[in-house]
Amino acid sequence: MRSRQGLIRLLSVLALMAGLALMTAAYAVSANRPQSPVAHTKSVGTFRAVIDTIDYLDTSQAYTAQSLWALWTVYETLVTYRHVAGAAGYQVVPGLASLPKISRGGKVYTLTLRKGLKYSNGKPIRAADFKCTMKRDFLTASPGVGFYDTIVGAKKFETSLKGDIGGIKTKGRTIRITLTSPRGDFLTILAEPFAALVPCGTANQDLSANPPPASGPYKIGPNPDKNRGFSLVRNKYFKPTKYIPRGTPNRVDVTIVGDADAAVQRVISGQADYTNAAIPPERIGTVSNRGQLRLRKSANTYYFWMNTRVYPFNKLKVRQAVNMAIDRSALVKAVWGGLGVTTENILPPTYPSYRKLTLYKRNVAKARQLINQAGAKGADVTVWGRQVSDSQQSTTLYASYLSAIGLKTTLKFLPRSTYYTTIGNSDTKAQTGWARWLEDYPHPLDWFDVLLNGRNIVHENNNNFAYYSNAKTNRLIDGLKKPPALTPAVNKRWANVEKLIMQQAPWAPWSNRTFPEFFSKNMGCISIQRLYGIDFMKVCRK
Amino acid sequence: MAEPATDFTLDTAQVLAEEEHGASIVGRSPWYLAWRRLRRNYIAFIALFVFVVIAVACSLAPIYAHHIAHTAPNATHTEDIVNGKQVLSAPVIGTDAQGNVVVEKAGGVLGPTWWHAHGRFVLGADGLGRDVAVRLLYGGLNSLKIGIGSALICVMVAVLLALLAGFYGGWVDWIITRSFDLIWAFPVLLLAIALGSALSINGFHHFGISISPHSLWIPTLVISYVYVPYVGRPLRGQILSLREKEFIEAAIGQGASPLRIMFSDLLPNVASTALVFFTLIIANNILTEAGLSFLGAGVQPPNPSWGTVIQEGQERIISAPWLTLAPGIAIVLTVLSLNIFGDGLRDALDPRAKVRVEH
């Protein structure tokens, strides 16, 4: 009897201890769980966004800030960027795969896919899909193919559109990419949405109306219409990771409204939670207290290029004079109502390689003197601009500055669809004009190699509108293609390249623009990802 | 019974009138009669007065700009201060603790100063700090040059083609009318936009003629070209009808040359219609020019025209409505005055005529 009571007592003590242990474990687990941003807020439910336009809902074609913003959460890349605000948003982190092992002096990238990955249709994500995705980019003439032509066999495939891309080998969950030469920005290029995986067998055409299955936290809902709107719904096969959260909204409804006033009104009246509408600067005052207005600093540079091969801009003194003549503050004020910062730099201030340049203090008298010294007084100059409001305004002001220093200007505005192809054709011999560059990926090569490396000047679709080619800076840029990481030393070298180029003044950079983003008053947890903009996966309601 | 002999002659009426009233009937030309009818139409005269005032004001644009506003139409004054206010001011923007934008001081463009700034920025400044009044006057000058110039070219070409088609008939008429049909087949504004856009990029450099893309000749010629059938067709119809009249047969019988018949006999008979068309089509052309310039296919920036001034001001239509209102009112007044005067002229020249510019 005693022994039986003892046994019961012993079992009770054990049960109590087990209970305590379970409670402790449960507490420990809950304490270690990362705090959700929505801990003290209402459920988001559906996040309703109004955007001005979207080009495509297919990663092979999408190439605007709006489409990349939406598709970033739908199609995952092998490596990706962190869902955080500030400089950390530029950090490349594991996506569908681990961070690559880089070997053979930066020429071979080996990545391994995570286990158990599935598309939104339930089919497994395979390593072979990466090769199919790359081939599809070339077969659909994706605007992003130029980023991948350093992969061995890619250029041949681009020409023939047949056969294989020998530089991509897959086995099991492993992807091995071989490059023709080391490329320091290749990791960021792998994070570009053009490289987001789609299954083998996906049609080689724009699938915006019937998008391929998703690999990210969301998938595109039924019947998307890029002219009217679309919705993003949860992808039930997606498993969140340390770097890619599940996303707070259950659904995201995106409506396309071209008129900025109508878009803003939707947010004010509670029909929408957010809009990226370009609010006219003078209306910011009236709008700001009817919702939440945030300013997004994206990596962009607005500049005037000067064709270094064409008179009078083939003279250094003329280019320097132009840099001294333009009133950057007035431009920012007139064109964007002050929503931007003035700059003399090529790189935007968001880059770690950025070192503020102050080479050309405004001095119209000195500029006139330089023009006279160069013998360019009264030279005929055609100033090219694009038929969009900000370009027309800034180009008109730019022409007035050129006139003020003794150049005889004529304005020429082209439709937005033909502008870049016209000035990018060497036969046009365009003298000077307006341009802007928005980063494709956060690496100085996206600026210097594409826009100012003389070795990349081509007859058609040229991006180096200044036709700037300098043996020294070309060599320095080529040398900086190799280091795979932007260490402080590498950043310093890039800053030196920038200074050398700006001393030659092929550009007159004038501003880095900031963009207004408008939210309804009941939205909280607003986070701006540096590369992709508003991160709706983290929003919450107040 | 024999028919009684009459004493009536062609002069009988005059003789009788002299006997009865002791006064003679003076022969009046159709132009005099038209002038008498027009004189009684006060509304038409008021409209003409309004148009003349606008035209004179626009013609004085250089004087106004130089001596009163002390600026040029394309000169920017972003940093100038007028009456203690900056011509162009950016809002002062800060952020609160949550990162929300707080506008500490509103910005914008200088509004109308009327006459409080000694003639500077009477109608305010545009987004680039340019004097709106100066641009409005210069814009009006350009709009009127294009409107009147294109109407003149259009009516002259239309009259010439109508004379040729109506007088010769046959294959000449067939070619000319089919050409009219071809132009007519396109919606007038679309055709003008297409031509204007194409020519405003590189200009016209063919057949030994070189016109720069910035020349006012581009919109002038484009507008006159697209309206030729609208004037030419009705005139051709009139000439076809006149061609069968006895006085033309008499002229042919007398051995008059085709040129003489066309310009001495036929032309004077369609001159009144052409004149009415001319006044009405000026108004039409000014509207078309404004539309083309608004769309970037007419007058090329930075040159002003009423259309470009509206286009430049449209983004600030809520915060700075004068930028669009001023050229808009100018266009309305000009077109309305020309149309009213044109209608009056039509009634005076031929009260039975139904001349309309329809498209």
Question: How would you describe the overall organization of this protein?
Answer:
The complex is a heterodimer of chains A (542) and B (359). Chain A is α+β, with helices and mostly antiparallel strands. The longest helix of chain A has 31 residues, at 2-32. In chain A, the strands form five sheets. In chain A, strands 1, 8, 9, 10, 11, 12, 13, 14, 15, 16, 17 and 18 form a twelve-stranded mixed beta sheet that branches. A four-stranded antiparallel beta sheet of chain A has the order 4-5-7-6, with helices on one face. In chain A, strands 2-3 form a two-stranded antiparallel sheet. Chain A is globular, with a radius of gyration of 27 Å. The model of chain A is unreliable at 24-41 (pLDDT under 50). Chain A has helices at 2-32, 65-71, 128-139, 154-160, 186-190, 260-268, 284-288, 316-325, 328-336, 364-373, 389-404, 419-423, 445-452, 471-479, 488-504; strands at 46-51, 79-81, 92-94, 101-103, 108-112, 168-171, 174-178, 218-220, 229-234, 251-256, 274-275, 292-297, 300-306, 340-342, 380-386, 408-414, 432-438, 507-519, 523-524, 528-529, 533-534, 540-541. Chain A folds into two domains: 13-257 and 520-541, 3-Layer(aba) Sandwich (D-Maltodextrin-Binding Protein, domain 2); 300-515, Dipeptide-binding Protein, domain 3, CATH 3.10.105.10. Chain B folds into two domains: 76-129, no CATH class; 133-356, Orthogonal Bundle (MetI-like fold). Chain B is mainly alpha-helical and 359 residues long. The termini of chain B are far apart. Helix content of chain B is 62%, strand content 6%. In chain B, strand 4 (92-95) and strand 5 (101-105) form a beta hairpin. Chain B contains twelve helices and eight strands. Chain A binds chain B through residues 261, 280-285, 288, 292-295, 327, 330, 332-334, 337-339, 387, 389, 392-393, 396-397, 399-400, 410-415, 516, 526, and chain B through 74-76, 78-79, 88-93, 95, 98-103, 106-109, 127-129, 197, 201, 212-214, 296, 300-302, 315-316, 318-320.
